[in-house]
Amino acid sequence: MNPKLSNRINAMATSATLAMAAKARELKNEGKDIIGLSLGEPDFNVPEFVKEAAIKAVNENYHSYTPVDGYADLKQAIITKFKRDNHLTYTPNQIVVSTGAKQSLANLAMVLLNEGDEVLLPAPYWVSYSDISKLAGGVPVEIPTSINSDFKITPESLEAAITPKTKMMIYSSPCNPSGSVYSIEELRALADVLVNYPDIIVISDEIYEHINFTEIHASMATFEDMKNRTVVVNGVSKAYSMTGWRIGYIGAPEWIARACNKMQGQITSGANCIAQRATITALENSPSKIQFMVDAFKKRRTLILDLLAEIPGFKTNIPQGAFYVFPDISYYFGKTLNGTIIHNASDFSLYLLEKAHVATVTGEAFGDPNCIRISYAASEENIVDALQRIKVALV
Ligand code: PMP
Ligand code: GLU
Question: Which protein residues are within 6 Å of ligand 1, measured from CB?
Answer without folding.
Answer: 40, 100-102, 126, 172, 176, 205, 207, 235, 237, 243, 248
